Amino acid sequence: MPPEQSHESSAGRRHRHLSGAESENAVTVFDTVQPSIDGVADDLEKTTKINTEDNSQEYVSGVKLGLIVVSVSLACFLTVMDISVISTAIPKITDDFKSLVDVGWYGSAYNLGSAALVPLTGKMYNHFNLKWTFLVFFFAFELGSALCGAAQTSAMLIIGRAIAGLGASGIINGSFTIISASVPLEKRPPFIGACMGISQLGQVIGPLIGGAFTTGYTWRWSFYINLPLGAIVAVPLVIIHIPEQIAKQSPLRVLKGLHRFLDLIGFALFAPSVIMLLLALQYGGNQFPLKSSQVIGLFCGAGLNAVVWAFWNRHKGDEGLIPTSMVKRRIVAISSLNYGLFMAVVFGGVFYLPIYFQAIKEKSAILSGVYLMPNILPQILTTILTGVLVPKVGRIPPFALFAAATTAIGSGLYGTFQPNTSTGKWIGYQILAGVGQGFGFQMPLIAIQNDTKPEHLAEATSLLVWAQYVGPTIFIVAYNTLFTSSLRSEIPKHAPNADVEAIVAAGATKFRKLVSAEDLPAILVAYANAIDHMFFLVAAVGVLAFLAAFGMGWRDIRQKPAAPGTSNDDDGSSSPAQA
Predict the structure, then answer these.
(1) What are the start and end residues of every segment in region (Disordered) (predicted)?
(2) Distance (Å, whole) CA 334 – CA 441
(3) How far is 508 from 358, CA to CA, in rounded Å?
(4) Is 50 helix (H, G, I), strand (E, B) or coil?
(5) Per DSSP, what are the bridge partners of residue 51?
(6) What is the C-alpha to C-alpha distance for residues 382 and 386, in angstroms, rounded to an integer?
(7) Main-chain dihedrals φ then ψ at residue 49, nearest 5 degrees
(8) Residue 564 pLDDT grade (very low, low, confident, very high; cuts 50, 70, 90)
């Protein structure tokens, strides 16, 4: 049946009934009545209602679609930049707050806030208005950024990072959901690719902005910069109508049954498990010995809570915090696992390469950001390249395997860095890792989108985004624990007379003032060795991502999607879809 065009007002049209056999398969779309401000943008575009044999849905086109994509892409850009912007500011922050042992928390607090809430975001977008839910998350992100900029203590900075992370938890998932609601499936990949490409620019711009502000003014503007840029994101989304693609109950009715719709009990069981695990990783080998009762108790508490949550989640089924049907889908589960491990490898370099350049090479914060360019620019180029190659090749695992292998090798080569490492080596190794990272960013999302029915896409994407946060959250703390414990053990080997705790507490740049000229070369070797040990762990995580890539589905994605009620197996055959 050819597409039908409709120019009716979305505010005046509550739903559209189809006749005949078509109505049996149609999905009725209820449009939320938008405030009158939506009329400001009515002349920007025409709304297209695309009618297929399976459903009738309202989509967006023209300038209005362009503004939506730019706004959500910029929002993703800010969330990614907020992760990388701190990398070049960390050494100065540790100097100001005398908080080298908190380095892991500056990244993990952000990811912890995101990881704790991400499983809920898919359900929130399924039950509440898409646009306003997104804007609430974005406001929380902006509030956290303001708190970080105003922080007077390391603890306040960590709290601000956690609040910003809570906001970020719904931004990436919400951006993909908004694009999916605005664009038909067959036209979606270029827009999602553009969103991911723009967001990855945050990794390029972030270290440079952080370095520039830290060197020329203050690291606080690394966070304040999000406020004016946030206005550019919010204004178009406030005035533009975004269509709802599934029927939703009234907000009041959802609020009355909030505990059932969002599984708040599951969330109350799940979040403490993650927090206790991170505390155990952070404290072990730093504040307390690994065999101490405090650390062992936290590990046991995390494990016990996780077991209770797992039984509860299974009892709730698809109404649980993480829908069981999503976990049972092999491609969804393994792609999420691959992405969590892969992003943990990426963040290892983002956080510790600047420490190498500033602490050992004695470069400024802004130069350490510039020195990351050999890693980040290839990411951008190969991310764009994969958007072209994947539809032609048709298979995802070859790209994911190449990405994980190359990234793991590059990270392992980082583990050879010493004070006298040549420029050619640290540039070449970063290029190698950057190429691999660019090939891997899109693969899990493409795999999931080709394995998931549209009505489950928001929840499947939320599982992927959750893995993106929880993987780095756990491993960044593990990296920092290994780094600081290695530093404490390496310093006495190379400089027996040095004050180990004073050097560790001084920060990544001010420790030079505490050691004599005779001991400095030995301390630099100890610092380099500690960073090397950490990068060997990063490489090991990359190997795990490589193994997970084998399970991401070998079906040719160029094949016609399966009919409703079926799912495509790896060989292209159709089988009944899982519940």
Answers:
(1) 1-20
(2) 15
(3) 7
(4) strand
(5) 56
(6) 6
(7) -100, 110
(8) very low
144 vs 110: CA distance, rounded Å: 9
Token reading at 149: 């900029």
Under DSSP, the state recorded for 517 is: T
C-alpha closest to that of 316 among 273, 246, 251, 264: 264
Q: Are 241 and 41 in contact (CB under 8 A)?
A: yes
- Tokens for 142? 């902006």
The residue to which tokens 């490492």 are assigned: 421
Radius of gyration of the chain (CA): 24
CB atoms < 10 A from the CB of 532, how many? 19
3-state secondary structure of 418: coil
The two tokens of residue 23 are 């109505």
How many other C-beta atoms lie within 10 A of the C-beta of residue 188? 15
What's the mean pLDDT when you consider all of the chain? 78
Percent helix, strand and coil across the chain, each to the nearest 5: 70, 5, 25
Task: Report whether 49 contacts 16 (CB < 8 A).
Answer: yes
By the 8 A CB rule, do 414 and 351 touch? no
Q: In whole angstroms, give the CA distance from residue 579 to residue 321.
A: 16
CA distance 68 to 188: 13
Q: Which residues contact 122 (CB under 8 A, 6 or more apart)?
A: 173, 458, 459, 460, 461, 462, 463
φ/ψ bin of 503: left (φ > 0), alpha (ψ from -120 to 50), beta (otherwise): alpha
Q: Judge: domain 62-246+257-263+321-559, CATH 1.20.1250.20.
A: yes
Residue found under tokens 């038909």: 184
Of the chain, the end-to-end C-alpha distance in Å amounts to: 29
Query: What's the CA gap between 519 and 521, in Å, rounded?
Result: 6
User: Looking at the chain, how many residues does it have?
Assistant: 579
Which long-range contacts (C-beta less than 8 Å, at least 24 apart) are formed by 39-44?
A: 39/11, 40/239, 41/67, 41/239, 41/240, 41/241, 42/9, 44/240
Handedness of CA 226, 72, 159, 201 (dihedral sign): negative
d(CA 165, CA 275): 14
Domain range list for the chain: 62-246+257-263+321-559, 264-320
Tens of pLDDT, residue by residue over 425-441, are: 999 999 999 999 989 88
Mean pLDDT is lowest, of 238-252, 468-482, 500-514, 555-569, for: 555-569
Cα separation, 385 vs 196, whole angstroms: 12
> What average pLDDT does range 28-53 have in this prediction?
37
**For position 318, what pLDDT does the model report?**
77
Q: How far apart are CA 257 and CA 574, in angstroms?
A: 37
Give the separation between CA 286 and CA 279, rounded to whole angstroms. Answer: 11
The answer to whether 90 and 103 have CB atoms below 8 angstroms apart is yes
